[in-house]
Amino acid sequence: QVIRLSDYRPPAFRIRHVDMRFSLNDGHTDVETVMEMERAPDTDAAEPLVLDGDALTLIALDCNGVAIGAERFEATPDRLTIRDLPPSGPFTLRIATRLTPETNTELMGLYRSNGVWCTQCEAEGFRRITYFLDRPDVLATYRVRIEADREAAPILLSNGNPGEHGDLDGGRHYAVWDDPHPKPSYLFALVAGRLDVLTDTFETQSGRDVDLAIYTEPGLADRAAYAMDALKRSMVWDERRFGREYDLDVFNIVAISDFNMGAMENKGLNVFNHKYVLLAPDTATDGDYAGVETVIAHEYFHNWTGNRITCRDWFQLCLKEGLTVYRDQEFSADERSRTVKRIGSVHGLKAQQFPEDQGPLQHPVRPRQYREINNFYTATVYEKGSELVRMLATILGEAGFRAGMDLYFARHDGDAATIEDFLTCFAEATGTDLSQFALWYDQAGTPELYVTEHFEAGRLTLSLRQSLARGAAGTGIEPMHIPVRFGLVGPDGTDLAAEPTAGTAEVEGDVIHLVTAEAEVVFSELAERPRVSILRDFSAPVTLRHEQAYEDRLVLARLDPNGFGRWRALTDLVGEALRAASMAGAGRPALDPRLIEAVVACAAEERLEPALRALMIALPGEAEIARLVGSNVDPEAIHQAREGAIGAVATAGAETFRRVRDGLERSSGNFSPDAASAGRRALSNALLMYLSAADGTPALAAEAFRAADNMTDRMAAATILAHRFAETPEASEALDRFYADYAHDPLVLDKWFTLRATVPSDATLDTVRDLAAHPKFSMANPNRARALIGGFATGNPRVFHQKDGAGYRWTAERLGELDRLNPQTAARLATAFRSWRSFEPVRQEQARAALSALASRPELSRDLRDILDRTLS
Ligand code: ARG
Ligand code: ZN
Predict the structure, then answer these.
(1) Nearest ligand 1 atom, CA 299
(2) Which positions are annotated as active-site residues?
(3) 669 pLDDT tier (thresholds 50, 70, 90)
(4) Is the dihedral of CA 510, 513, 514, 520 positive or negative?
(5) Could you tell me which residues come within 8 angstroms of residue 755 by beta carbon, excluding any fewer than 6 positions away?
(6) I need a surface site. Which of 223, 488, 529, 691 has the fewest CB within 10 A?
(7) How is the chain split among helix, strand and coil, in percent rounded to 5?
(8) What does R_g of the chain's alpha carbons equal in angstroms?
(9) Mean pLDDT, rounded, for 178-205
(10) Cβ–Cβ contacts within 10 Å for residue 269, how many?
């Protein structure tokens, strides 16, 4: 059924404290939960208590120590209804349940991963452990006692601070954990098993000593060193930037092999997909290092934005997620390069959030309804949600934003809050009316921002207009507050210090506040016509339609002093050229010589950091070009156009590229994951791709593969071989070597599965069929399923969208299989079909047929059914 924001009612009962006892055994786990409860004031004293469950078996039930008679309760697997509870005052409810974590393949609730007992409760997994008011506005303190065999589980962990522990009869032992901070059930966690540990300590700014620990499967603790370093840097950063200190005696992280998502911020006990903890130069790429840093920071930052202040209901998910993504992006920007980080975030937003916002899965940043909340952990809630916080910071300025955050932390600590609560803090702290800004949370879709310029007699007039189409989410189309950061670039490549002299939009520093459907800004007494660099730093999540002379754009691509503006000018030109070429069909050269020259020149430009040069010379991916084309998309034509462009850039730039690459310092055995070294590797490998294309043989990449002393270089070379020289002995040799060297290492083996699934050749459909039957393939492991199915469906546009529909059918069939084990992961992967209506008619029909066949299965999960229904609607 449909859950609606407008139906929100506060809970009729409160749970003050929860005392849990877990007895872990091979084959079953007994759970006893004792809850100190009372009715909420002003509620009907006759109202029964209705607790949430999911696939539960009730073993015992009593109130204040007396068993509740069968006539007073009704227990089903997903609900426990109890009547005639005390009309007022506190009472104690005891519930016993029995679980089988061994057969829990959904990986929600309590399950076992490689023998390790672990939990995932967000959003609604706690109800798979015990009957509970499993909603985020019910906050309780917890005491948890875990008992298990000492051999099977020497490590016993839960939230909060460690308490008593000791031995029991029969080779068993126990440990007690106390969490003094009231929390909602989704932040509950338990981990038990044979684990290794890496420890460290941290002293907070007020002098509290915190014991830090990262637990891994045996033998892997040394691979957590970078994660530990990132954790300590995150703790320092949150103190300095937001004045937020850690609040328990211990902070524990556990790396788990089977995990539906990236990681989870459970209070004092973060549980991670091991992909976001374990790193070694030989097994992890620079991208993996950056990912670990981001996710470690993200989960740590949730301690304040998510845990101390949580969400009133799941419609407010962006309250914690958008804000925490903003915080982790700012952390990475401070730790690495701000420009490079911003480009990466914008690139991700356009690749993930824009298609979502422009297709059938569209929803507002704060949705108004859902059928399955797990399907709303989306790019819109997370990434667009973070853009809204970023706009708030742009609109209010650094000091105003910090004042609003301070008030939010002071006023709502311990609360389950709403977006209104959040915005009110900023409005009050700065005396700003944010009612128009609030529309960003409720109006779905990507606004279009039209900009035209007119220059005459030293006067520049900028005309801005916004428009938002009424989309699938059926939301309003009121003009929003769009902060537009800009610069006027003079002929020498520096920003002019021009103040507006007239206009209908307010301008503050370098930000135009567009708050109406249309507005103008006028600058006078300009000696020369400046080049307008607009929407710098992507100051709002909009589609920019700037009518600007091609010449001006080429100039900005060369000398916009704003690194982001320069990247945007160049990559937008290239993107539009590739869009035009793919629509014109075969035989038309994609890029004009001046554009090619601009790309080549970037590679050699010493004043740009190497990471930025690597981003500037990378052509937009095929999925990105498809998005630019928008409708009647032909992925084959896009592939051909892009390959043609790569060939043209490679030929024109070969000499420059060779010289630049030879001049880059190499790591030579001393691997360092720092941003500058990673940037040099990124540039070197981007150049290697072009040089291999120019050369037309696998020789260079084969040599680079052999010489690689780290996974970044090895993976880059292997990708060139597999993708560009698929049929050559060099490619098969490299893939075989890669497999032989890493078959024992699950995280690297995932890369091998993805690498093979993303080869853009006709033979790949047979390859993925074989890989699905490979002894190392497992549907039950989400990382492996994502590596193969997700790698193919989102990383291989040419073959996934093959015209005969075979790619769609193979994917849909695998999703049907996966759904029986793990609905959440199946539903997530099914979003690969979200843009199916933008393709040409034959492919649309093939996709519709494959999706309909999947949707016609009677036994589908609610998760997958919801995605399919919305995708097909
Ligand atoms: N809160 C977690 C994070 O952002 C992710 C939880 C995802 N849960 C889900 N049901 N998909 O760090
Ligand atoms: Zn999060």
Answers:
(1) 12
(2) 299
(3) low
(4) negative
(5) 715, 718, 719, 722, 735, 738, 791
(6) 529
(7) 45, 20, 30
(8) 28
(9) 99
(10) 28
Which residue has the least CA distance to atom 10 on ligand 1? 374
Helix-then-strand count for the chain, H and E: 28, 33
Residue ID of nearest Cα to ligand 1 atom 12? 264
Question: What pLDDT, in 10s, does the model give residues 778-788?
Answer: 999 999 999 99
Q: Which residues contact 411 (CB under 8 A, 6 or more apart)?
A: 421, 425
pLDDT at position 12 over 60: yes
321 lines ligand 1 (CB under 6 A): yes
Give the number of the atom of ligand 1 that is nearest the alpha carbon of residue 124: 10
Task: Give distance in angstroms: CA of 608 to centre of ligand 1.
Answer: 36
Which residues does residue 112 pair with via DSSP β-bridges, in sequence order?
Answer: 117
Closest CA to 328 of 255, 389, 404, 251: 389
Reported as a single tens digit per residue, the pLDDT across 72-117 is 999 999 999 999 999 999 999 999 999 999 999 999 999 999 999 9
Q: Which of 340, 354, 615 is nearest to 471 (CA)?
A: 354
Q: Dihedral through CA 360, CA 362, CA 367, CA 371, nearest 10?
A: 20
pLDDT tens digits, 455-488? 999 999 999 999 987 766 666 689 999 999 999 9
The length of the chain, given as a count of residues: 873
* Those residues with Cβ within 8 angstroms of residue 87's Cβ, 6 or more apart along the chain or in another chain: 39, 45, 46
CB of 374 closer than 6 A to ligand 1?
yes
CA–CA distance, 671 with 284 (Å, rounded to integer): 11
Q: Which of 124, 373, 377 to mutate to test the pocket of ligand 1 (most atoms within 8 A of CB)?
A: 377
pTM greater than 0.90: yes
Q: Could you tell me the distance, in angstroms and rounded to a whole number, from the CA of residue 116 to the centre of ligand 1?
A: 20
pLDDT at 474: 62
Cα 361 to ligand 2 centroid, rounded to whole Å: 20
Q: Which atom of ligand 1 is nearest to the CA of 382?
A: 4
Rounded-to-integer distance, Cα 542 and Cα 440, Å:
11
Q: State whether the beta carbon of 300 lies less than 6 angstroms from ligand 1.
A: no
Q: What is the DSSP string of 782-794?
A: HHHHIIIIIHHHH
Q: Which two tokens stand for residue 752?
A: 């091998």
pLDDT of residue 588: 76
What does 144-197 look like in DSSP terms, one character per residue? EEEEEETTT-SEEEESSEEEEEEE-STTEEEEEEEEEEEE-GGG--EEEES-EE
Angle, CA 575 vertex, CA 572 and CA 578 arms, to 5° = 150
State residue 670's pLDDT score: 84
Element (H, E) at 818: helix 806-821
DSSP-assigned letters across all residues of 592-613: -HHHHHHHHHHHT-TTS-HHHH
In this prediction, residues 369-396 reach a mean pLDDT of 98
List the Cα angle 74/79/81 in 5-degree steps. 40
**657 ligand 1 Cβ < 6 A:** no
Place of tokens 């156009």: 641
Residues 6+ apart with CB under 8 A from 41: none
- Spell out the SS3 assignment of 666-699: CCCCCCCCCHHHHHHHHHHHHHHHHHHHHHCCCH
ipTM of the complex: 0.98
Give bridge partners of residue 467 from the DSSP assignment. 448
Is the bond preceding residue 743 a cis peptide, omega within 30 degrees?
no
Residue with tokens 């992280």: 253
* Ligand 1 near 377 CB (within 6 A): yes
pLDDT at residue number 668? 62
C-alpha 376 – ligand 1 centre gap (Å):
10
CA of 321 to the centre of ligand 2 (A): 5
